[in-house]
């Protein structure tokens, strides 16, 4: 027997101070996980995971200089520039994703922003995915208000636009787009009624204060993101961060702390384990689920980086007694 949870009965704060968020990070590990798990159970079934599939619909040749990304034309990775994928190919991939258990299909294009000539094809992709009975998501770079409105009318459910890191650390990662540019796109998306998917990347050499700053910014948006992807840096050869031999991998327990703090700050958001899962042990992933992560990307690739094989996820879910949601139900188990 399950009972629906009224999200309006859960306190949502949009005024977190950096000091308060840092204090959460500093809690004893067991206390932090207990608080995160308690928060998680107020809104979600603690033994259920939402599964999304991400497809690159336009790979390589991006004009941005993101230091982590193999798709940047400014990096020296061997990734080749490709054209926008045909609609039929995208919809075939969506059918396969649904067959594999995904409830949301996400489409990503390596652009600074979509051009007018591409919009018709993008809108057809969205309507095609919706016709399959799946939720749809896109990440296309910066969006104007008009573009966001057209995507909404075509049936798009979610728009992904990550903040990447804290505002104070941002220029060490990206210089071709400002932090305000990212916030403006999120505002355009919110204004037309699209659900926001926004998170960041950890392990890029940032401090704990930067991780706290990223999560505080997300939590303090006028409306908290509906989905919060937390990526662990994948060092890709040819990218600036990928070639930094002295860049240490983020401590696994610090990553769990990041997940837990995200859950506490954003109690009704889907907290998604994103890039970097292929290097995580079963034990680390289990801790993340315990800390409040309840969404993942399935499939062998996330845009251009490797991901966990679907069979491995199924095996781990079976060990942990987790079920895959067929849709984004909000229930208490």
Q: What descriptors fit this protein?
A:
disordered C terminus, 14 strands, 17% strand, alpha/beta, 10 helices, 333 residues, single chain, two-stranded antiparallel ribbon
**Which range best describes the helical content: under 10%, 10-25%, 25-40%, 40-55%, 55-70% or over 70%?**
25-40%
The coarse overall form would be globular
- The span between the termini is 8 Å
Largest sheet: 10 strands, parallel
Oligomerization state: single chain
* Structural class category: alpha/beta
Q: Radius of gyration over alpha carbons?
A: 19 Å
Pick out the low-confidence regions.
301-306, 328-333
Please work out how many helical segments DSSP would assign.
Answer: 10
- Averaged pLDDT, please? 88
Task: Tell me the total number of β-strands.
Answer: 14
Proportion of residues in extended strands: 15-25%
Order of helices and strands: EHHEHEHEHEHEEHEHEHEEEHEE
């Amino acid at each position: 027997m399950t009972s629906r949870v009224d999200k309006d009965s859960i306190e949502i704060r949009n005024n977190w101070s950096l000091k308060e968020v840092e204090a959460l990070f500093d809690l004893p590990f067991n206390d932090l996980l207990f608080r995160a798990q308690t928060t998680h159970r107020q809104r979600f079934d603690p033994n259920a995971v939402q599964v999304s599939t991400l497809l690159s619909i336009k790979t390589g040749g991006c004009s941005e200089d993101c230091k982590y990304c193999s798709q940047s034309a400014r990096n020296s990775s061997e990734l080749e520039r490709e054209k926008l994928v045909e609609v039929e190919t995208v919809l075939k991939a969506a059918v396969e994703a649904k067959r594999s258990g995904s409830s949301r299909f996400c489409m990503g294009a390596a652009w600074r922003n979509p051009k007018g000539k591409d919009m018709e094809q993008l809108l057809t992709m969205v309507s095609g995915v919706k016709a399959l009975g799946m939720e749809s998501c896109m990440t296309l770079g910066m969006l104007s208000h008009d573009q966001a409105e057209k995507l909404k009318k075509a049936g798009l459910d979610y728009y992904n636009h990550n903040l990447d890191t804290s505002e104070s650390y941002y220029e060490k990662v990206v210089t071709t787009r400002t932090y305000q540019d990212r916030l403006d796109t999120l505002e355009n998306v919110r204004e037309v009624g699209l659900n926001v998917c926004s998170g960041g990347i950890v392990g890029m050499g940032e401090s704990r204060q930067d991780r706290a700053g990223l999560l505080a910014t997300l939590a303090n948006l006028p409306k908290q993101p509906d989905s919060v992807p937390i990526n662990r840096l994948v060092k890709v050869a040819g990218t600036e961060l990928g070639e930094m031999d002295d860049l240490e991998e983020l401590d696994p327990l610090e990553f769990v702390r990041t997940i837990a703090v995200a859950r506490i700050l954003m109690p009704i958001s889907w907290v998604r384990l994103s890039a970097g899962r292929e290097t995580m042990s079963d034990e680390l992933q289990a801790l993340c689920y315990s800390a409040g992560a309840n969404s993942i990307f399935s499939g062998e690739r996330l845009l251009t980086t490797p991901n966990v094989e679907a069979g491995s996820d199924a095996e781990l879910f079976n060990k942990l007694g987790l079920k895959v949601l067929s849709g984004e139900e909000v229930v208490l188990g």
